[in-house]
Write a structure and sequence with these properties.
Number of strands: 24
CATH architecture of the largest domain: Beta Barrel
Largest sheet: 6 strands, mixed
Strand content: 25-35%
CATH superfamily of the largest domain: Efflux pump adaptor protein, beta barrel domain
Oligomer: single chain
Radius of gyration: 62 Å
Shape: elongated
CATH class of the largest domain: Mainly Beta
Structural class: alpha+beta
Number of helices: 5
């Protein structure tokens, strides 16, 4: 059987016609005939062929396009695989390299040591105790005894205020209190005199009763001897009974007076004591016009000029107790949950390290920061002054042994995912790393680096994500 491929120019061979078998009809087999004109290349030629029943079974039209399509697909897949492999194979031998001057990069060594998670804060030296001086009474500044910054001792006068109205009120009030005091004392004196009179009367009655009783016994014998008239005897006896009743009455008055005097005397005594306190308070108010130092220390913040008017409660100055100091520091608010009482820190002064610990935390947050007070632990520095500042390293966790790499701007460029490690030949290659905690000086290395590795810790943006750096 002769065939011709579609789209190709070839000779067309048809079955040679022969005698037709009985009952058979000729059929047509169409083959594409070659044509010189491409536009007419697909127009088929028709050949009349007479076939026997066997030729009908064996000879049929065959379309070659499905076989050709499968072959083209297989060839295309094989070509794609080869192309991809070539790209990968070629890329494995293509490394992007960048030359960089050694002076433009910062090389840091990876070390193993004690890792401390801490935050640097600025601490200001303050007296551990400050006493504020306010005006207890208003007035005009009359005299200024000391200057700001002067050391003072307890009781030293600082300023004197003048307040004529306060003096006048004090004089009037003092006169009233003195008048009340005199009245109470007069009342107490009268009570004392009354008690004395009643007791004296009782004594006289007792004396008179004794005399009358003695005379009565004598009169009784005289009456028996008829030497005294009976009427006289009866009169003397009646007088004796009268004096006895009078003595009972006076004795009752003495008892009542004693009870009344006891109750009134306590009240009078309390009132007199209260008056004395009021008088002392008045005099103290006048003395408050002279503001004095309540304790030893250094005077600071003095705000008083001659002739200046000060209101009651207005701040005059403060006295700093210089025997002991504290350090006040401001800390960012996102550390508020990690800062606790007893947290320790350290700072260096005059070449020596000193320890401090948190002993007070202020709850107020201002401008994203909160205040803490730290006191010295162990040896205290001796040559520090109020207002002096220190860089305190406040430690947030215990020391741990760890691999560390110095901090640097590379972290912003890589997010801490990889670094350039420089070998002995001066070539820097990418290494994937895993970093953990950090402090202002180091990152904790969890994976990817070993002690002794040299790492570029400066900026990476000038390297254009190169695979390898050639440091010259």
């Amino acid at each position: 059987m002769a065939q011709s491929w579609h789209g190709r120019t070839s000779a067309t061979t048809a079955l040679r016609p022969g005698p037709a078998a009985p009952g058979c009809q000729p059929f047509i087999i169409r083959h594409p005939a070659p044509h010189k004109n491409p536009a007419r290349a697909h127009r088929p030629n028709t050949h009349l062929v007479q076939a026997t029943p066997r030729s009908i079974l064996m000879d049929r039209t065959i379309d070659p396009r499905p076989q050709r399509r499968k072959k083209l697909i297989a060839l295309g897949c094989a070509g794609g695989v080869l192309l991809l492999g070539g790209i990968l194979w070629g890329g494995s031998f293509t490394t992007r390299r960048v030359r960089i001057e050694a002076a433009k990069v910062t090389l840091s060594s990876v070390t193993r040591g004690s890792f401390k998670e801490f935050i640097p804060v600025t601490g200001t030296v303050q007296p551990i105790q400050t006493v504020f001086l306010d005006a207890l009474e208003g007035g005009t500044v009359k005299q200024r005894f000391v200057e700001d910054g002067t050391p003072v001792r307890a009781g030293d006068p600082i300023i004197e205020l003048s307040n004529p109205q306060l003096h006048m009120d004090a004089i009037n009030r003092e006169a009233q209190l003195l008048d009340q005091q005199n009245n109470l004392r007069t009342t107490r004196l009268a009570m004392d005199q009354q008690t004395t009179r009643l007791r004296d009367e009782l004594l006289n009655l007792d004396k008179e009763l004794k005399r009358l009783e003695r005379d009565g016994r004598i009169d009784e014998r005289l009456v028996q001897d008829s030497l005294l008239a009976r009427n006289t005897f009866l009169a003397d006896r009646e007088h004796l009974e009268y004096m006895r009743e009078k003595r009972k009455l006076v004795a009752a008055n003495v008892r009542s007076d004693s009870l009344f005097r006891l109750s009134q005397l306590g009240s009078i005594t309390n009132n007199l004591a209260l008056i004395d306190q009021n008088l002392a308070f008045l005099r103290e108010n006048l003395q408050n016009l002279v503001i004095k130092a309540p304790n030893d220390g250094q005077l600071s913040g003095l705000n008083a000029e001659l002739g200046q008017t000060k209101q009651r409660g207005e701040r005059i100055a403060q006295i700093d107790v210089l025997e002991r100091f504290k350090v006040r520091a401001r800390i960012p608010e996102h550390y508020v949950s990690r800062v606790t009482i007893g947290l320790q820190g350290s700072f260096t002064h005059a070449g020596r390290q000193h320890l401090v610990e948190v002993f007070k935390i202020y709850p107020e947050v201002s401008n994203g920061e909160f205040d803490v007070d730290l006191r010295f632990v162990g040896e205290k520095p001796t040559d520090i002054r109020r207002g002096q500042t220190f860089q305190v390293r406040l430690q947030l966790s215990e020391d741990v042994e760890a691999v560390m790499v110095p901090r640097g701007p590379f972290f912003q460029d890589t997010g801490g995912q990889w670094v350039y490690v420089v070998g002995e030949d001066g070539r820097g290659t990418k290494h994937a790393v895993k970093l953990g905690r950090q402090n202002p000086e180091h990152y904790e290395v969890l994976e990817g680096l070993r002690p002794g590795d040299r790492v570029i810790t400066s900026r990476y943006n000038a390297f254009n994500d190169a695979d390898e750096l050639l440091i010259e």
